[in-house]
Amino acid sequence: MRPTLIIANWKLNGNWSFNEDYASAFSNGLKDVDLTGRQIVICPPSIYLQQLNGLILHQEIYFGGQDLSDEISGAFTGEVSGVMLKEFGCRYVLVGHSERRLRHQESNEIVVKKASNAISAGLIPVICVGETLEQRQAQQMQEVLSTQVDAILQGLGERVEHIVLAYEPIWAIGTGQTASAEQAQEVHGWLRETIGKTSHRMAENLPMIYGGSVKSDNAAQLLEMPDIDGLLVGGSSLIVSEFLSICQAGKVM
Fold it and tell me: Which residues are catalytic?
């Protein structure tokens, strides 16, 4: 059975005092939350991993990096390797987030190389794919997603069994626009069908999560969809009460 993942991407947010207050409120809030069958992942800026890892202690809470280098080590100023993230308690790492693809011009090849490095370091890469508003309006969504997914399948081969795929329609990130649960399911179902042409077993076992203006008021509907196995949460993950609601969305309390 595919796991249910709720991943918080803090992006460029947080500071020492905010982290302490967040960790305290989140830990207290978890006392009343049933996380059976769910894994919650927090991806703060990497310099805060050690601090938060020592403050949030719960068996279903994991940590992840927001990115990693496509290199292992060496003269690469400002980079963080998968081995370093693993050493600081990470289990997951985001790879190929749209902001990295667009702002840093990360190609499909770079994304695959990063994902490969993550797997080699013992991390689970959460590989993001998605289309822009212009591409969607030009009816290029399937073409764009096929190119991204084909690069992953060809570059990783059987190691695709060690990844999570995150569909994040770029037009719905931080814009207030959100794909409906039915729209998101349509794309997730198509992605699973597309991957199934390579391997039915791989497609059935591959966790696929949705990201794009996820909030507590749409989380439950998204998680009800058969091919949506979790959520990638941005701004809403920075509000403790909101994120706690998302973490338990759709569960019978």
Answer: 97, 168
Place of tokens 């009816």: 139
The CATH code that applies to domain 4-247 is: 3.20.20.70
Q: Give the pLDDT confidence score for residue 213 in this predicted structure.
A: 87
Give me the amino acid identity at 237: S
User: What global pTM score does this model have?
Assistant: 0.96
Give tens-digit pLDDT for 75-129.
Answer: 999 999 999 999 999 999 999 999 999 999 999 999 999 999 999 999 999 999 9
219 CB contacts (<8 Å, ≥6 apart)?
231, 245, 246, 249, 250
**Residue 210: beta bridge partners?**
167, 231
Nearest to 233 by CA among 150, 149, 166, 133: 166
Residues 6+ apart with CB under 8 A from 235: 174
